Amino acid sequence: MIKSKKLRKLKNINHGFFNRKGGKSTGIYKSLNCGPGSKDKKTNIKKNLQIVKNYFNKKSKNIILLNQIHSNKYIYIDKNKKIGNKKFKADAIITNQKNLPIGILTADCVPILIHDNVSKVIAAIHAGWRGAYKGIINKVIKFMIKKGSKRKNIYAAIGPCISQESYNVKMDFFEKFIKKTKKNKIFFKKRKKVLFFDLPKYVKSELKFNKITKIDHININTFDKKNNFFSARRALKLKHDDYGRNISIIMIN
Fold first, then answer.
1. Separation CA 3–CA 197 (nearest Å)
2. pLDDT-based confidence at residue 221 (cuts at 50, 70, 90)
3. How far apart are the C-alpha atoms of 94 and 121, rounded to whole Å?
4. How far apart are CA 104 and CA 106, in angstroms?
5. 217 close to 158: Cβ distance less than 8 angstroms
6. Mean pLDDT, to the nearest integer, of 142-149?
């Protein structure tokens, strides 16, 4: 489990970017697979989520996860929001509630954990290229500002994700981003006639566009096997029929 140096300094929250160590799953899911959407045994996933929850606080509520759909949709959980056993279709969670761990699942996409240490609001964002392209980060920041946050008080941690050297893309992908703005050329690099996309750099630029300056980028490549994270791209390369999911959590104490 990895912590952000910037978020670690904030005493009223707890957080963590978990890799695949320390769980109960076996085989290609070994061992801390927290993805209910995977084909792993549901009992193992449940045990793994309990391990993560216990790390924060055994008395805390269950971890809130989403049915992630690579969108720009988010949910806001305040004291009036009835959660129950609902699985919301969205790619970001925002809350001001204490002892409520909110989580994002990734396997190469970017997990972003956010905290306003003055208005005491947190957010967890799943930013794959589609969600980032559609403006999920922009929408979350705008909502936080609407709710009283100030940009200067917002901290953002970009967690482990796929690095540019491992993220080769096709020409239509490149053209899609260039069509949006020619400035997006800076996120692409060509090597031996192959295009590579810098997803974390693009995500960081979206935060900067929203005037967020307190940014911590944990530069760990999930595709690289030695870093011990689940990776959808690596699973595809190895011809596995599925893959586990890494979990990233933030909670107000």
1. 25
2. very high
3. 7
4. 7
5. yes
6. 97
**Token pair recorded at residue 111:** 């997990």
Number of structural domains in the chain: 2
132-142: per-residue pLDDT in tens? Answer: 999 999 999 99
d(CA 247, CA 230): 10
- Residue corresponding to tokens 């996409």: 109
Question: CA 233, CA 105: separation in Å to the nearest integer?
Answer: 15
Angstrom CA distances, 97 to 12, 78, 80, 164, 197, stand at 12, 6, 10, 36, 36
Which tokens go with 151? 């940009």
Q: Is 237 exposed, middle or buried (0-12, 13-18, 19+ CB in 10 A)?
A: exposed
Alpha carbon separation from 61 to 13, 49, 57, 78 (Å, rounded):
15, 12, 9, 14
pLDDT at position 64 is 95
Give burial (CB, 10 Å; 0-12/13-18/19+) of 9: exposed
Look at the alpha carbons of 142, 137, 156, 111 in this order and tell me if their dihedral is positive or negative. positive
Provide the token pair at 12. Answer: 């009223």
Query: Structural domain of residue 174, as residue ranges?
Result: 164-197
Residue 233 pLDDT grade (very low, low, confident, very high; cuts 50, 70, 90): very high
- State residue 59's pLDDT score: 76
242 and 169 fall within a common domain = no
In the predicted model, what is the mean pLDDT of residues 53-63? 84
- Is the domain of 123 the same as that of 234? yes
Q: Could you tell me the two tokens for 77?
A: 């959980």
Same domain, 114 and 140: yes
Q: How many residues does the chain have?
A: 253
